[in-house]
Write a structure and sequence with these properties.
Blueprint: H1 2-7, E1 15-26, E2 29-41, E3 46-50, H2 57-65, E4 72-77, E5 80-81, E6 89-92, H3 104-109, H4 119-132, H5 148-160, E7 166-170, H6 178-195, E8 198-203, H7 206-212, E9 215-220, E10 225-231, H8 243-256
Parallel strand pairs: 3-8, 3-9, 6-7, 7-8
Antiparallel strand pairs: 1-2, 1-4, 4-5, 9-10
Bound molecules: adenosine-5'-triphosphate (ATP) and magnesium ion (MG).
InterPro entries: AAA+_ATPase (IPR003593), ABC_transporter-like_ATP-bd (IPR003439), ABC_transporter-like_CS (IPR017871), ABC_transporter_ATP-bind (IPR050166), P-loop_NTPase (IPR027417)
Keywords: ATP-binding, Nucleotide-binding, Transport
Family: Belongs to the ABC transporter superfamily.
């Protein structure tokens, strides 16, 4: 899948981040959350942003979603400056953000508000994505009747149901148990292979990044910036127990904990 998509890469990147910076005003000054973040994402590419807690991953994603329009530099989607939420971008937030007064099917259906589908097709689509995240039977359950992991799966279905071209995921699997987490990672990979969707996954899980991404962008904290970009040239499905996987895991772990790099900061511990 990756090869076919790579050969059809258009001149224009699907997403362009050019010298993106973000500062938050504080009472006694400001906090520089992101500095000089430059990255082009090709159509169909899978990017993982890997970094420790507080290094600016969610902040960066919020800028891409268009929820925050005060930043330095440029963010272009298909060559156009990002402006507000758009149906070409599907979003799965770090917390599930379901509406407590809507049931599972209604929450998933919200992902289709801008789609203008006939009701029957719309209902079928919602059903299909509820099954995809293995919540068949829970269509009429309300968020307070679900476990944290189930609620997160509803949010994933909602992010995917409109078949967006770009999928932005902020730690989507963090609340899931290890087994479900692996299954969801495999499912995401299958969806990517089927749809050629461009995806950007924020995570602090090294294994998750290697399993899913074509390129892993390692961030350094305070201010959040790119420390290194690692190409994961392994074919899918990726063997988590394989030698190359293991080698990449060691390499990325050492990047994260301050190993070989041009980062001026000392390791945190
Ligand atoms: N609205 C805000 N006002 C002030 N500071 C903020 C705001 N949002 C985030 N920050 C700061 O920006 C930095 C990056 O936060 P962010 O939420 O992007 O981190 P993260 O990499 O997503 O961390 P985690 O892995 O824990 O989710 C942190 O120091 C945080 O305190
Ligand atoms: Mg975050």
């Amino acid at each position: 899948m990756t090869d076919a998509l790579a050969s059809s890469t258009a001149a224009l990147p699907t997403v362009r981040l050019n010298k993106v910076g973000k500062r938050f005003p504080l009472e006694n000054g400001e906090l520089e959350a992101i500095r000089d973040f430059t990255l082009d994402i090709r159509e169909g590419e899978s990017i993982a942003i890997l970094g420790s807690s507080g290094c600016g991953k969610s902040t960066l994603l919020r800028l891409l979603i268009g929820l925050d329009e005060t930043f330095d530099g440029q963010i272009l989607i298909d060559g156009q400056p990002v402006r507000g939420i758009g149906s070409e971008r599907g979003i799965v937030f770090q917390e599930h953000r379901l509406f407590p007064w809507l049931n599972v099917a209604q929450n998933v259906d919200l992902g289709l508000v801008n789609e203008n589908l006939p009701p029957e097709q719309r209902r079928r689509r919602v059903e299909e994505f509820i099954r995809l995240v293995e919540l068949d039977g829970f269509q009429r359950a309300y968020p307070h009747q679900l476990s944290g992991g189930m609620a997160q799966r509803v949010a994933i279905a909602r992010g995917l149901v409109a078949s967006p071209r770009i999928l932005l995921l902020d730690e989507p699997f963090a609340a899931l148990d290890a087994l479900t987490r692996q299954q969801m990672q495999e499912e995401l990979q299958a969806i990517r292979a089927r749809s050629g969707i461009t995806s950007l996954l924020v995570t602090h899980d090294v294994e998750e990044a290697i399993f899913i991404a074509d390129r892993v962008v390692v961030m350094a904290p305070r201010p959040g910036r790119i420390k290194r970009i690692v190409e994961i040239g392994l074919p899918h499905p990726r063997d988590r127990a394989g030698y190359d996987f293991h080698r990449l895991r060691q390499e990325l772990l050492s990047e994260l904990t301050g190993g070989s790099s041009n980062d001026r900061r000392q390791p945190r511990r």
